[in-house]
Amino acid sequence: MHSTGWPTIIASLMRRRHFMKGVIATLLLCLLATEPLAFAGIGSDVTMYVGGTENQIKEGAEGKSSERDEKNFIFQYKGGTLSIPYDQVNDLEYGQKAGRRLGLAIAVTPLALFSKKRKHFLSLGWKDEQDKQHAAVFELGKAIVRTTIVTLEARTGRKVEYEDDEARKSGMGGMP
Questions:
Q1: What are the pLDDT digits (tens) for 84-142?
Q2: For residues 76 and 20, what is the distance between their CA atoms, to the nearest angstrom?
């Protein structure tokens, strides 16, 4: 039998330990680098089509919404544009969904359980020239919620229906 001395065993363990520290550090860096992408919702100025009657738009299509056009609400996404005439809008509804960041808590820190991620949803209903009813649900980035709601109310002449008091506070900038 070949006998290995303590110095050799200790040196071997130190190399393995150093190697494992490097592997763990690399994995943590990769996790931290990809975490914002994995747990971030849409961007603060992005609009996402969640669903509705518009079959030409894929659910989850991200783009930009604009109320700058005086006659139409515009949603531009990769692959096209949805234009909704303000004078044909017959339903406006806004709501929020708050969820705990469970994935982030498991992956990085349990403190993430104490934070909430709010999603902002705008539902639009309108009739086309053939009197056919259409609907679309959009998720709005938090930076564009208030301006979108105020502009839609002004241009359509309709009031937004709020899902609850929390949505009303958020959509109106904290005003009652």
A1: 999 999 999 999 876 544 444 444 445 444 545 678 999 999 999 999 999 999 999 99
A2: 48
- Domain borders along the chain are 1-39, 47-171
- Identity (one letter) of the amino acid at 164? D
Among residues 141, 84, 148, 138, which one has the least CA distance to residue 118? 141
Name the token pair of 59. 């659910």
The Cα–Cα gap between 121 and 135 comes to: 13
What's the pTM? 0.65
- Count of C-beta atoms within a 10 Å radius of residue 84: 21
* CATH 2.30.29.30, applies to 47-171: yes
How many residues are listed for the chain in this entry?
176
Separation of alpha carbons 155 and 123, rounded Å: 16
Task: Measure the CA–CA gap between 100 and 118, rounded to whole angstroms.
Answer: 9
Structure-token match 């949805």, residue found: 82
The runs of H, that is alpha helices, within the chain are: 6-39, 102-107, 145-156, 165-171
Rounded Cα distance, 90 and 135, in Å? 10
